[in-house]
Amino acid sequence: MGKNTSRHVLSILLVVAISVGFIFFQFRNVKWNVVFDVLKNVNLIYIGLACLAMFLYWWLEAVVLQRFGKQADPTLKMGTSFRITMIGQFFNSVTPFASGGQPAQLYLLTRRGIDIGLASSVLLIKFIIYQAMIVATFIFFLIVGFPLLGHTTFEIKYLILIGFVINLGVIVGLVTVAKSERVAAAIVHVLLKPVLLFVKKERREGIRENADSKIASFHEESVRFSGNTRLIWECVFYTTVQLLFYLSIPYFVLLSLEVTDVSLMTTMTYHAFVMKLSSSIPTPGGTGGAEYSFTSFFEMVLSPEKLVMALILWRLITYYSCTIFGAIAMIPFKRKKSKKRLGQNSR
């Protein structure tokens, strides 16, 4: 087992340990024989709909990647985009703050022969749209469901605010990097300094010049992408629908448990708050924070026995599925030689 594989396995084991520990501590007084009775009566049709919503979430993300990616590589097929998306989902799941997905996808795009500056701009614009739509949907559900926050603790409200500020800060930072070549160059040069200490002096200038060339390519393509308003708005639409599918998953989970008196809007609002709170927790998959926030919101509408089952089903569908299918997508990932790069195609 390689070093990276061992690290990912440890991350997954940590997530499982935290999740199991939380469930047994939080629900230590629950009647588990009743929980198993709830499990026996789960409606699999609604579980199937929840899984379908999760699949459509992945698929629409792959659609956005393909729409942008084809600008860089006209041969990029939907199947390949979906596979790259799932590998990104895996690395998002096993790294704190979901920080590993973008570098993994960047690596896979460059393996296709796409220039690293161009690939970076593809992923950056895609990520900015995703983060912007998260903020927009959260603001919408915050307005619609603000009264629901009155039943939560101060800690919940504080963590939700932190998650919102983090997302907003990320968007501002990324837009600045995309628009300003000077800022992007400054960041790269700062990051290069410790690396260059281990490089021979005669090679350092060449590395700096190569980095500057890639930054120029990155900035040029980022500006060009941002100027394609039709593509931007198309991907905004796909991303919005993607998030709505994701936010609807708890609704189908509740229906599978024969909970029919909680509206779709209420469950989506709760899930938006859970999603925002989880993003502020520095553990893989927001573990601990995700379970805590889900419990804090949905305990207002569920009995303890149905709540623990809903939590387990929700976590399996929204988190562990990404880990499992993302891992499958990596076996194997064949290298494909690039045909043309966008930089060449656009000239």
From TrEMBL:
<protein>
    <recommendedName>
        <fullName>Phosphatidylglycerol lysyltransferase</fullName>
        <ecNumber>2.3.2.3</ecNumber>
    </recommendedName>
</protein>
<feature type="transmembrane region" description="Helical">
    <location>
        <begin position="307"/>
        <end position="331"/>
    </location>
</feature>
<comment type="function">
    <text>Catalyzes the transfer of a lysyl group from L-lysyl-tRNA(Lys) to membrane-bound phosphatidylglycerol (PG), which produces lysylphosphatidylglycerol (LPG), a major component of the bacterial membrane with a positive net charge. LPG synthesis contributes to bacterial virulence as it is involved in the resistance mechanism against cationic antimicrobial peptides (CAMP) produces by the host's immune system (defensins, cathelicidins) and by the competing microorganisms.</text>
</comment>
<keyword id="KW-0472">Membrane</keyword>
<keyword id="KW-0046">Antibiotic resistance</keyword>
<dbReference type="GO" id="GO:0050071">
    <property type="term" value="F:phosphatidylglycerol lysyltransferase activity"/>
</dbReference>
<keyword id="KW-0812">Transmembrane</keyword>
<comment type="similarity">
    <text>Belongs to the LPG synthase family.</text>
</comment>
<dbReference type="Pfam" id="PF03706">
    <property type="entry name" value="LPG_synthase_TM"/>
</dbReference>
<feature type="transmembrane region" description="Helical">
    <location>
        <begin position="183"/>
        <end position="199"/>
    </location>
</feature>
<feature type="transmembrane region" description="Helical">
    <location>
        <begin position="156"/>
        <end position="177"/>
    </location>
</feature>
<dbReference type="GO" id="GO:0006629">
    <property type="term" value="P:lipid metabolic process"/>
</dbReference>
<dbReference type="InterPro" id="IPR022791">
    <property type="entry name" value="L-PG_synthase/AglD"/>
</dbReference>
<dbReference type="GO" id="GO:0046677">
    <property type="term" value="P:response to antibiotic"/>
</dbReference>
<feature type="transmembrane region" description="Helical">
    <location>
        <begin position="12"/>
        <end position="30"/>
    </location>
</feature>
<feature type="transmembrane region" description="Helical">
    <location>
        <begin position="231"/>
        <end position="254"/>
    </location>
</feature>
<feature type="transmembrane region" description="Helical">
    <location>
        <begin position="42"/>
        <end position="60"/>
    </location>
</feature>
<feature type="transmembrane region" description="Helical">
    <location>
        <begin position="128"/>
        <end position="149"/>
    </location>
</feature>
<keyword id="KW-0808">Transferase</keyword>
<keyword id="KW-1133">Transmembrane helix</keyword>
<keyword id="KW-0443">Lipid metabolism</keyword>
<keyword id="KW-1003">Cell membrane</keyword>
<dbReference type="GO" id="GO:0005886">
    <property type="term" value="C:plasma membrane"/>
</dbReference>
